[in-house]
User: What shape does this take?
Amino acid sequence: ILAMCSKPDYDPNDPFTITDPDTQTLLETLSGDEKNQLVSTARQKQWKNKALTDTYEPGSVFKVFTTAMGLEENLINENSTFHCAAGYHVGGWFIRCHTYPNAHGTLTLPQAVSASCNPYFMQLGQLIGPATYFKYFTGFGFTQRTGIDMSGEASNAGLYHSAEHLAQEDAALATASFGQTVNVTPIQMLTAMCAIANGGKLLTPYVVSQVLDADGNVVSTTQPQVKRQIISESTSKRISKILGDIVNGGGSKNAYVAGYRVAGKTGTSEKHIEGNQVIASFAGFAPSDDPRVAVLVMLDEPQCYPRYGGTIAAPVAQKILESILPYMGVEPI
Assistant: This one.
């Protein structure tokens, strides 16, 4: 892990000071136990490393992994089509596409990824089936902690559908196939996206590269650990091409960095709380044909409009990649 950041945050040299201005204003009106309780709650909130401790519904970013399942199992190819009629009837429900009442019509796989068409991936999910879906969901690491060398990594146990439930509820498989009704942690998502970039290999993320003694001698060096091969290198390259194409003029075009080929997917997931809140996100890597760095950007409950991952999260990723690729010595094409 090269960088990790959560906002709002705090001054590590002064961790007990509440930094949120709204909370500071409220504290001035309180006293006694009520004030002490708010101080304690506010401190715990600003100290949280959301990349490790929070779970969220990934939304359309998860379509990358549904695509991987279909390609790896030879159930589809880049020319496979499904029809979008602005929604899809499954399990007694009519689940809308995000374009409702407008329909995408008949789409190929790359077109569906670019358009982020929910009905396409619901139909693909049914083709994949519950057992195979859950095999890959587990394979990409979404059912266990990543094992990162930091404390506080949350578990998402109980926050995703079991294989049995997916088999019993067609609507559960349909919604899970486009990244809703399942919860993952950000570090799980980024690790899984790295597996797409790494030729299908799932690795254990780590922060500590080396441990030195007081004299600067190397005590230990962390070596990358491959947990398992999830998809083939060929499938990895095919997905990377699709994700590169949708950044280069497709649905994720706001992550485009001049001179570099970026691969990625946007997502906008609904939060099941009052207030119609969303999480807008982008996950990707670059260069798409020789990956050096991956990035995940999440904006939790944005208060601007429009609130799509493509309009507000992708530009943040673009700025990050625009800065880090030259810094890492990656030459533009």
Notes: The chain is about 40% helix and 15% strand. Residues 60 and 267 are 4 Å apart (CA to CA).
